[in-house]
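Students often ask why we bother encoding 3D structure as a string. The short answer is that it lets us treat folding as translation between two languages. Here is a chain of 87 residues written in the first language.
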Amino acid sequence: MITAAQLLGEMEQQVRLAKQTQNEATRREAIYAVRTLCNLMLGDDRPSAPAIPQAIQMSTVHATPITSLNEQPLREEDANGESLFDF
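And here it is in the second language, the structure alphabet:
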């Protein structure tokens, strides 16, 4: 079992990394790790993904795949064959 002390120690390491690095991506990853560890300690079941303001959230779109009943290759008069690589 992971103890609170172990989680706090990992948070300290991630904060130290975030303070020391010059790389913005590494800094963001370390801060994200701290957020995740905090959520774990608090027993928060919500994902720790960055919050998106309500005004710009995109609605979920359910796409229906388009299937064709006549799956015949397209025939062109000036084509040399069925492959893209037939010149």
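Translate back mentally: The CA atoms of residues 39 and 46 lie 8 Å apart. Keep this in mind for the problem set.
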